[in-house]
Design goal:
It contains 2 helices and 5 strands, in the order βααββββ. By secondary structure, it is an alpha+beta fold. The chain is elongated, with a radius of gyration of 16 Å. The protein starts with 12 loop residues before the first strand and ends with a strand.
């Protein structure tokens, strides 16, 4: 969605890409940040958030998004196992012009597993150039 604020439509769905839960990265993450977490339980919530944040950052590199104002309403539904392919998507929920040169986009972000089940979701508010 490399589009300016005015070209973004409410209800528009944008792919954030896909990535697998890398077993080596899962082991390293658990060792560094979640002591006591067994990788048999899948990726811990903090790693699921990090996976979403990476997909979001990579997708937004060419967007006219100038600032992320907030991330809230975070929900974790399940902990995906090593090797699971996760797919990110963003749905535009609302938009609000805040001047001649910018506007705020409110979006829901979902991280889905291979079966299309919800793994993680959150809401974001971001400033986009007009």
């Amino acid at each position: 969605m490399p589009a300016s604020f005015d070209d973004i439509e409410i209800g528009q769905v944008v792919s954030l890409g896909a990535t697998a839960v890398d077993p080596a990265a899962l082991d390293a993450f658990c060792g560094a940040f979640t002591p006591g977490w067994s990788t048999d339980r899948g990726a811990p919530d903090a790693m699921v958030f990090a996976i979403w944040a990476r997909l979001d950052a990579m997708a937004a590199t060419d967007w006219p998004q100038t600032k992320r104002l907030g991330v809230d309403a975070l929900r974790w539904m399940r902990n995906p196992p090593p090797g699971e392919l996760l797919r990110g998507r963003m749905t535009i929920m609302a938009k609000d012009p805040v001047g001649d040169g910018k506007g705020v986009i409110i979006a829901q972000h979902d991280l889905l597993d291979e079966a299309g089940r919800l793994v993680f979701s959150c809401l974001t508010r971001s400033v986009f150039a007009r």
